[in-house]
């Protein structure tokens, strides 16, 4: 399927590895020019080179903390006329809610709610003017199925979803869509770090924790980042103009509800 992304210009934040990288890779493979971002300059440069080699796409890298206004400005400047924005950022670490002080609370809300909104504010008017825009916010399945210890992450991402619900409807007539992707357990460094933490606490091998975790997912496995990236690319495509304000749950069937 031709996604109609040839020549489109995309920004994907937190994309030197994991799900962000997977989204950038699928967009690049579909013909988009991609600006990627990450805090580790060396890892980011390596990711950019890998994308260029594997997709032959125009890939630029902007290193830095995406919450900083100067980095946001640099991302938009590198992309030019932004057609696609994929908001991604790491979530706060596991922490009992009693340990979430004001500083941690504000940091989590800034990273996972305020920053995506700020980036959208920077690009959405240009999308409206050109009558094409695709915005995808990577949140978490914990928005629908909260996980104890990830309360700050769940709350900030749910706040982002609620904030943008009305915005999505306001710009839909201009062929600008705003959607959300809620990943479950995917085979990423973040998941491996969670397994390591649990294994240490229980005094068991990490492999044991991983096997147990996969067994609780109806699909019987963890997600492949590439399949997440493919779903992201579709939401950014010319075929997805009638999908907006939606949260796509990609979790191998782990969430047991019907809504």
Radius of gyration from the alpha-carbon trace, in angstroms: 18 Å
Output the number of helix runs. Answer: 8
The major beta sheet can be summarized as: 7 strands, parallel
**Total domain modules:** 2
Reading side by side through the largest sheet, how are the strands ordered?
Answer: 3-2-1-4-5-6-7
SSE order in H/E notation?
A: EHEHEHEHEHEHHHE
Q: Number of DSSP strands?
A: 7
Backbone structural class: alpha/beta
Specify the overall morphology: globular
Q: Report the span from N to C terminus.
A: 29 Å
Please tell me about this protein's structure.
This protein has a seven-stranded parallel β-sheet, sandwiched between helices. It has two domains: 201 residues, NAD(P)-binding Rossmann-like Domain (Rossmann fold); 36 residues, no CATH class. Helix 4 packs parallel to helix 5. It is 47% helix and 14% strand. It is an alpha/beta fold.
